[in-house]
From TrEMBL:
Role, per record: Catalyzes the reversible isomerization of glucose-6-phosphate to fructose-6-phosphate.
Catalytic residues identified in the record: 346 (proton donor), 377, 506
Keyword Transcription tagged: no
Pfam families for this protein: PGI
NCBIfam families in the cross-refs: PRK00179.1 (NF001211)
UniProt name for this protein: Glucose-6-phosphate isomerase
E.C. numbers: 5.3.1.9
Record's catalysed reaction(s): alpha-D-glucose 6-phosphate = beta-D-fructose 6-phosphate
Known pathway: Carbohydrate biosynthesis; gluconeogenesis; Carbohydrate degradation; glycolysis; D-glyceraldehyde 3-phosphate and glycerone phosphate from D-glucose: step 2/4
Gene Ontology MF: a single term: glucose-6-phosphate isomerase activity
Family assignment from sequence similarity: Belongs to the GPI family.
Length: 541
C-alpha cells in the first residue's frame, strides 16, 4: 500500500496533476471525462487534481486494498465489525429487491419487513388520529428522545424533507443539558404529545435521563396510567425497554448488525416516517437501495461511491489535506454536515488496523461544513486564500421546491457554481494587477494591493447535482456517503464500524458524577479536574 501511495505522490509531481487550471485549459472534454451520472444524479469530479495516471494509481490502490472484495463481504453478511463481532447490514434495511440477506445462515428480510410494516401501521394510526393520547385527543406533536445515531439522522432528514412533512410536528431532544428538554416541553401539551425513546442500547445516559424527565412531565399532567398512551420506543434491547414500562406493541426493534450512525433506515427512522408517511419513507429507502445496487455493480472507474472514497483517500494520504468541507447549496440540508460528521468521523477516526497494528499514514479527515450561501459570508475566505487546502464538496438541486421563487434558486445555483469555479481558477498576480489598473488605480498602489487580491486557485472540489431534494434523492445521498466512508475505511484498513473512542468519555463521566454531586472527593483526579470541580461546586446554587 505504502509503495503505491509513494508511487502516486511521484505521479502527481511528474504529471503536474495539481495544476487543475492548466488541465482544464488543455482538455475541453475534461468535464465529460471526469463526471458520472446515475439517473438524475450528476457527480462532477473534474475540478479535482486527477488525470489518467492518478486515476490508474487510485484504482491500483483499491485493488491492493481489496475494496471490492470487502464490499462484497459487507453485503453478504460477513462479520466485518471484528471488534464487536457483528455483521454490518444497514443495506438490508433498504433492500427493496427483498432478496434474501443471510446473517449466520438466517434470512433477515422477513424480520426487516415485519418491523417496517409495524412502523407503517403505527405511523398511519398516529397521523390519522386513530391512535390518540390518554384523553382521546389527536397527537399533534412527536418528541424524539435520542442522541448520536438515534437523533442526527431523523433530525437531518426531517428538515431535509420539510416539503413532504404532513404529519404531526416533530421535536428532537438529545442533549443531557436540561435546557434542551425544558425548552422543548414548553412547546408541547402532554395530552397531545407522543414521546419516542430512541436508543439502540437503551442505556445511553442522555436518552434515559431525558426519557425520565419526559415521563415525569406526562405523569404530572395526566397520571401514571397515561404513560402507555404517550410513549413508544425504538431499540435493539427489548428487555430494557420492557423494564422502562413501554408496552410491547409500541416497541420497534432493530438488530446489532445496524450501527447507530447507519440506523436512519431502521426503526430509528420512525419519527421521519410519522412526519412524511410510509409511502415517502419507502421512496427514501429506495434511494438508498439504488446506490447499493450501483455500488455493488459498477466498475471502479464508473462507481460514484468508490470514486468519492478514492478521492477522499487521495486528498488525505497523497496530497496531505487534513479536512474536507461539506457545502450543500440547499438550506434544508443544513444538518447534513453534522450528520456526516458522525457518519465519517465516528467511523474512520481510528488508528489501529484490522490486524491490530498502528496504522501507517492518515485515517479520516476532519469533516465540517455549513450550507451555502451562508458559509460564503463566514469561512470561505480561508478556503479561497488561507494557507490550508480544503477539498470542498458542493451539492445543489436543479430545482427548488419553491417554484414561485425560481429566481432565488437561480441565484443559489450561480453562487454554488461561482465558488467551485473560483476555487479552481483562482486569480493570478498579473490578473489582479490588471484589474486594479483597469479601475484607474495608480501603478505603485496596484503593486502593493494586488498580492492581497491573488487567489492561488487549483483548490479541489466535487459537485453533486440532483433534480430536487425528494425522499429518493435524500436516501441516495446518504447511502452514497455511507459507502464513501466504507471505501475509505477499507483503504485505511481499519474497522469503520466500532466506536471505542466514544466509550472512554462515557466511562469517565460516570466516574465523575459522584464527585460533581459532592458525594465523593476529587482526590485521585488530576489537579486541573479537581480544581475545576472545586470551582463549580463553590459556585453551585
Ligand atoms: O456516541 C456514541 C454512540 O454509541 C453512537 O454510536 C450512537 O449512535 C449513540 O451513542 C447513541 O447510542 P444509543 O442509540 O445506544 O443510545
Amino acid at each position: 500500500m505504502n509503495t503505491l501511495v509513494e508511487k502516486l505522490k511521484s505521479t502527481v509531481r511528474d504529471t503536474a496533476a495539481t495544476d487543475i487550471r492548466a488541465a482544464f485549459a488543455a482538455d475541453p472534454a475534461r468535464f465529460s471525462r471526469y463526471s458520472l451520472t446515475l439517473g438524475d444524479f450528476l457527480f462532477d469530479y473534474s475540478k479535482c487534481a486527477v488525470n489518467e495516471a492518478v486515476l490508474a494509481g487510485l484504482e491500483a490502490l483499491a485493488k491492493e486494498a481489496g475494496v471490492e472484495a470487502k464490499r462484497d463481504a459487507m453485503f453478504s453478511g460477513a462479520v466485518i465489525n471484528i471488534t464487536e463481532e457483528r455483521a454490518v447490514l444497514h443495506t438490508a434495511l433498504r433492500n427493496r429487491a427483498n432478496t434474501p440477506v443471510l446473517v449466520a445462515g438466517r434470512d433477515v428480510m422477513p424480520d426487516v419487513n415485519a418491523v417496517l410494516d409495524a412502523m407503517g401501521a403505527f405511523s398511519d394510526d398516529i397521523r390519522s388520529g386513530r391512535l390518540t393520547g390518554a384523553t382521546g385527543r389527536k397527537i399533534t406533536d412527536v418528541v424524539n428522545i435520542g442522541i448520536g445515531g438515534s437523533d442526527l439522522g431523523p433530525v437531518m432528514a426531517t428538515l431535509a424533507l420539510a416539503p413532504y412533512h404532513d404529519g404531526p410536528r416533530l421535536h428532537f431532544v438529545s442533549n443531557i443539558d436540561g435546557a434542551h428538554i425544558a425548552d422543548t416541553l414548553k412547546l408541547v401539551e402532554a395530552e397531545t404529545t407522543l414521546f419516542i425513546v430512541a436508543s439502540k442500547t437503551f442505556t445511553t445516559i442522555e436518552t434515559m435521563t431525558n426519557a425520565e424527565t419526559a415521563r415525569k412531565f406526562v405523569v404530572g399532567a395526566l397520571g401514571e396510567a397515561a404513560v402507555g398512551h404517550h410513549f413508544c420506543a425504538v431499540s435493539t434491547a427489548l428487555d430494557k425497554v420492557a423494564a422502562f414500562g413501554i408496552d410491547e406493541a409500541r416497541v420497534f426493534g432493530f438488530w446489532d448488525w445496524v450501527g447507530g450512525r447507519y440506523s436512519i433506515w431502521s426503526a430509528i427512522g420512525l419519527p421521519l416516517m410519522i412526519a412524511i408517511g410510509k409511502e415517502d419513507f419507502a421512496d427514501f429507502l429506495a434511494g438508498g437501495h439504488a446506490i447499493d445496487t450501483h455500488f455493488r455493480e459498477a466498475p471502479v472507474r464508473e462507481n460514484i461511491p468508490m470514486l468519492l472514497g478514492l478521492l477522499g483517500f487521495y486528498h488525505r494520504n497523497v496530497l496531505g489535506y487534513p479536512s474536507r468541507a461539506i457545502l450543500p447549496y440547499d438550506q434544508r440540508l443544513s444538518r447534513f454536515p453534522a450528520y456526516l460528521q458522525q457518519l465519517d468521523m465516528e467511523s474512520n477516526g481510528k488508528s489501529v488496523t484490522m490486524d491490530s497494528k498502528p496504522v501507517e499514514g492518515q485515517t479520516g479527515p476532519v469533516v465540517w461544513g455549513e450550507p451555502g450561501t451562508n458559509g460564503q459570508h463566514a469561512f470561505y475566505q480561508l478556503i479561497h486564500q488561507g494557507t490550508t487546502i480544503i477539498p470542498a464538496e458542493f451539492m445543489i438541486a436543479a430545482n427548488g421546491h419553491e417554484k414561485e421563487l425560481r429566481h432565488q434558486h437561480e441565484l443559489l445555483i450561480s453562487n454554488c457554481l461561482a465558488q467551485s469555479e473560483a476555487l479552481m481558477k483562482g486569480r493570478t498576480l498579473t490578473e489582479a494587477k490588471a484589474q486594479l489598473l483597469s479601475k484607474g488605480m495608480d501603478p505603485a498602489k496596484a503593486d502593493r494591493i494586488a498580492p492581497h487580491r491573488v487567489f492561488p486557485g487549483n483548490r479541489p472540489s466535487v459537485t453533486m447535482v440532483y433534480d430536487s431534494l425528494t425522499p429518493f434523492a435524500l436516501g441516495r445521498l446518504i447511502a452514497l456517503y455511507e459507502h464513501r466512508v466504507f471505501v475509505e475505511g477499507a483503504l485505511f484498513d481499519i474497522n469503520s464500524f466500532d466506536q471505542w473512542g466514544v466509550e472512554l468519555g462515557k466511562e469517565l463521566a460516570t466516574g465523575l458524577l459522584p464527585v460533581v454531586e459532592g458525594k465523593e472527593s476529587a482526590a485521585g483526579h488530576d489537579s486541573s479536574t479537581a480544581g475545576l470541580v472545586a470551582a463549580l461546586l463553590k459556585a453551585a446554587r
